[in-house]
Amino acid sequence: MICLGIESTAHTFGASIIESDLDKTNYEKATCKILSNEKKTYTTTSGGMIPRELSEHHYKHATQIIGQSLDVAKINLKEIDLIAFSQGPGIGNALRVGANTARQLSIKTNKPLIGVNHCVAHLEIGRKLCAAKDPILLYASGANTQIICYENSYYRVFGETLDTGIGNFLDSFGRNLGLGFPAGPILSELYYEGKELIELPYTVKGMDLAFSGLLTAATRKIKEVERRKIRKEDLVYSTMHYAFAMLTEVTERALAHTEKNEIVLGGGVGCSKPLQQMVESMCKDRGAKLFIPPNQVMVDNAAMIGWTGTLMYKAKVKTSINQSMILPKQRTDDIKVTWRK
Ligand code: FE2
């Protein structure tokens, strides 16, 4: 069974070919071969993502990326059995390009269409590639920050950000500090040069988190860096330490509450070594297992859409053209997970 996955929730337009024998076997035994995972990412030197430019970027590259994905996989469009696309959540202008492209291909090839939830797809690709049985997903990306796990036919959100996603928080802090975009890799380098922990706000409300207070306080401290009262490295170390500790605390409480013992990382911030080390240390203390998928499937990618589409297709989920409208505000816990028992 061959699935073309299309991802376009935000800055990345991606296309992937997934080959699986799931139609002939069960989930545990089924293969998930990523034959290709191509993408083009919209970047700016300043000002963040402009929705109109974002859709122009995706429309400009959609045909090329899908063609590249087929070429790399050595697959002909006629050999595709189904077409999966990211239906939500995300930025409307970006989502619309992926949905339109998927609809057109579905009509042209007469192959079924499947709308996939982007956050659920992060969990499913991590679960499969890491062979985790029933993991909690710590999903830390630019726009999304959620702790998700399976309970009674739904992926429940056990904790999430109340304001900005952790990636956007780190990028805003990096921008205020005069770093380029994306700031994450430079911040991680500075983190390891930090020595002293500076006191900053720590905001965990129940199982949820908020980063705006931390951003305001850390940004104010930049003046002290300029006056050479504190070191830039110490401010970066402290800001990231507080943010990651908040995430780790909520993740640990989700482990305790659900009595699960596996964590899988997802999202671009999941690639951050300081975060990985902090979560790993917590897992070690609790006797839980941490799974870190390859970076290419932690950042936004179409392989996870193709794989989740394959799972949904096996469970007889299909999306008619009339049902294929984009869902920019779709929630992780809106989706009935009929493909898991
Ligand atoms: Fe994502």
TrEMBL record:
- The EC number(s) attached to this protein equal 2.3.1.234
Which cofactors, by name?
Answer: Fe(2+)
The answer to whether the entry has keyword Metal-binding is: yes
Q: What class of enzyme is it?
A: transferase
Q: What is its main location?
A: cytoplasm
Q: Where is the Gcp-like domain?
A: 36-307
Q: What does the record note about the cofactor?
A: Binds 1 Fe(2+) ion per subunit.
Catalytic function, reaction form: L-threonylcarbamoyladenylate + adenosine(37) in tRNA = N(6)-L-threonylcarbamoyladenosine(37) in tRNA + AMP + H(+)
**What Pfam families does UniProt report for this protein, alphabetically?**
TsaD
- Mention one GO biological process in which this protein takes part, according to its record: tRNA threonylcarbamoyladenosine modification
Listed A to Z, the keywords are:
Acyltransferase, Cytoplasm, Iron, Metal-binding, Transferase, tRNA processing
Query: Where does the protein end up?
Result: Cytoplasm
Task: Give the InterPro entries listed for this entry.
Answer: ATPase_NBD, Gcp-like_dom, KAE1/TsaD, Kae1_archaea_euk
Q: Which GO terms describe its molecular function?
A: iron ion binding; tRNA N(6)-L-threonylcarbamoyladenine synthase activity
Where, by residue number, does Fe cation bind?
A: 118, 122, 139, 300
Q: Name one GO cellular component term.
A: cytoplasm
The residues listed in the UniProt record as binding substrate, with positions renumbered to this chain, are 139-143, 171, 184, 272
NCBIfam families recorded for this chain?
arch_KAE1, gcp_kae1
State the protein's purpose. Answer: Required for the formation of a threonylcarbamoyl group on adenosine at position 37 (t(6)A37) in tRNAs that read codons beginning with adenine. Is probably involved in the transfer of the threonylcarbamoyl moiety of threonylcarbamoyl-AMP (TC-AMP) to the N6 group of A37.
Q: Which family does it belong to?
A: Belongs to the KAE1 / TsaD family.
- PANTHER family in the cross-refs: TRNA N6-ADENOSINE THREONYLCARBAMOYLTRANSFERASE (PTHR11735:SF14)
Q: What is this protein called?
A: tRNA N6-adenosine threonylcarbamoyltransferase
What organism does the record attribute this protein to?
Candidatus Iainarchaeum sp
